[in-house]
Q: What sequence folds into this?
């Protein structure tokens, strides 16, 4: 569920540098440390579960990701966590987890209705009675994609000391949709380095759903929204809040 750009081993090695620990990780870490069994969907390199284990979590921790290159990084760092290759469409569990999380806006990679509904049903099945599903998605009203412009270039240093530059460019919407907030946004991510023979480019589509639409989809899957926040400080959701952070329970 993490951006498929990072299916490449050399790019997977950059992931933690491009996504350093922040307030969102602290938010999820507190939840993980309070749960006996945790499934992290779209775990990437496993930063969250690796940190939880390092800080004393002694229960069951499982990370699920469709990118083998990301799990190579995770296994090297913490072989004492269950790292599973796959996604919610092909894996099934029956009431095994007190907490299921999707961090890093991984929820937005579930673009198609069928995929989203099937994934939510799998999450519901994976939760033990009283279990919680926690995830975040960008608030579409804030239109974050408008800041993903090619002039904003990030630089990171790879493990081999090569300097890698990363830039994004959003695909223009159809002419008739330019004034309307899109539900799906497609963008390219370009990685360049003087140490490489060629640039690496990927295309990703993300889905932006508002709180009302999320509530309907969760209810359809047998999940009830018990809390929603607008930021990592647990401020109330508002039209200008950057995030829709959702806590849902199995019913």
A:
């Amino acid at each position: 569920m993490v951006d498929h750009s990072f299916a490449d081993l050399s790019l997977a090695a950059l992931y933690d540098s491009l996504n350093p620990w922040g307030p969102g990780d602290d938010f999820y870490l507190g939840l993980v440390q309070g749960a006996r069994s945790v499934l992290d969907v779209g775990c990437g390199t496993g930063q969250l579960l690796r940190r939880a284990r390092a800080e004393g979590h002694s229960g069951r921790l499982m990370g699920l990701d469709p990118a083998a290159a990301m799990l190579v990084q995770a296994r090297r760092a913490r072989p004492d966590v269950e790292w599973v290759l796959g996604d919610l469409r092909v894996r099934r569990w029956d009431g095994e987890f007190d907490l299921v999380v999707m961090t890093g806006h991984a929820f937005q990679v579930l673009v198609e209705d069928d995929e989203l509904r099937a994934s939510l049903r799998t999450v519901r099945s994976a939760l033990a009675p009283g279990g919680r599903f926690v995830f975040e998605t960008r608030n579409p009203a804030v239109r974050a994609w408008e800041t993903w412009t090619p002039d904003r270039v990030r630089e990171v240093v790879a493990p081999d000391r090569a300097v890698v530059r990363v830039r994004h460019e959003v695909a223009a919407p159809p002419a008739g949709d330019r004034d309307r907030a899109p539900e799906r946004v497609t963008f390219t991510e370009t990685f360049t380095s003087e140490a490489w023979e060629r640039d690496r480019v990927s295309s990703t589509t993300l889905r932006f759903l508002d709180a009302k639409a999320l509530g309907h989809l969760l209810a359809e899957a047998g999940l009830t929204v018990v809390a929603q926040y607008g930021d990592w400080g647990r401020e109330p959701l508002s039209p200008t809040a950057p995030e829709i952070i959702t806590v849902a329970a199995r019913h």
About this structure: The radius of gyration is 18 Å. The first strand starts at residue 37 and ends at 41. The mean pLDDT is 93.
